[in-house]
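Marked as duplicate of an earlier ticket. Keeping the data here for the record.
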Amino acid sequence: MVELKCETDFSAKSDDFTTLTHDMADAVLANGEEAVSELSERLDALRISKKENIDIGRVIRFEAADGGILDSYLHLQEGRGVNGVLVELAGGDRELAHQIAVHIAFSKPPYLTRDEVPADDVERERANLEGITRAEGKPEQAVPKIVEGRLNAWFKDQVLLEQPYVKDDKQTISQLLGDATLVRFAQVFIGG
């Protein structure tokens, strides 16, 4: 997956821009993430012809371990990719991987597990929630429990495995996986 960033929709929708993006993705697929540098002259020419800043953003290549399942989802808008997701599963099948990729595109979770959430972010959110709870005049002895409940709700927005599945909010992504394991995911979207 290759993110090519520009300043205007005019450039992003142009044939030369989309062709270069596809060629970069093909190069990454064939030769690894560093392969985008092989097309630097074409990128420079595109910058000059469009007269705007065009830069390479995120470049991601997954290679599944033995027995692993890869899938992707690309949300198109007006003929161009605006939200791309890569997923790797251990166990499960391609359909499950695709369902999870679509869910990620919709919910945009930044992290796979709670362990990945930076401790500073958790503490900042905990302090914020404590301030809100105290401002609501909740009884002092109830504050820690209320804050923990709200923090758990916050984690559901941040952590993919804890999110309710968009097609059935009675089960979490972790439950949807069953015996399969979500090894990793990556997402690139406009504005992200």
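See parent ticket for discussion. The mean pLDDT is 94.
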